[in-house]
Amino acid sequence: MRHIISILLQNEAGALARVANMFAARGYNIDSLSVAPTHDPSVSRLTLVTNGSDEVVNQIVQQTRKLIDVVEIADLASADHLECELVMLKVEARNGAARAIVDCARRHRALILDESESTRTIQLAGSGTEVDALVAEMSRIAKVLEVVRSGVAALSRGHQVMSI
After folding, report:
1. How many CA atoms lie within 13 A of 77 on its CB side?
2. What number of CA atoms fall less than 13 Å from residue 96's CA on the CB side?
3. Which pLDDT does position 161 carry in this prediction?
4. Which of 48, 114, 122, 132 has its CA 20 to 30 A from that of 73?
5. What is the C-alpha to C-alpha distance for residues 155 and 153, in angstroms, rounded to an integer?
6. Topology, domain 2-79
7. Has domain 82-153 been given CATH number 3.30.70.1150?
8. Is 101 in a helix, a strand, or coil?
9. Binning pLDDT at 50, 70 and 90, where does residue 39 land?
10. Domains 2-79 and 82-153 share a fold
């Protein structure tokens, strides 16, 4: 099962490495990882996506909670939540593909960030499914030269918040 783990941790050197090592030590790959300071610059929010059984991921979450740098941790996969990911992709715009690229970007609510003589750079912020759909369709229209994905950012819906 897919798990989205959200962690508030002290913004200190080595904190991210300790969390990542907790997953690696148990043989769990981190599919996506995003980390940045919160409204309090001394605390960062780390969001990671992993796949595994509920029991084992719950055990890793409980062990991660004990790390000295961890302020709060939650598995958002079991809660009603919002998630978003940013993708930028550069495609080759040759042989009349430029119009099809623009049309595809519009269908997916993506932005054209850069246009050169032979390339277009497109940006989309959306769910992983929306990002995958854009990349797949662009791949059919034009040669994809580069893809950069930010990783998942996620928040629980409503009043439920992770407190510092």
Report:
1. 18
2. 0
3. 85
4. 132
5. 7
6. Alpha-Beta Plaits (3.30.70)
7. yes
8. helix
9. very high
10. yes
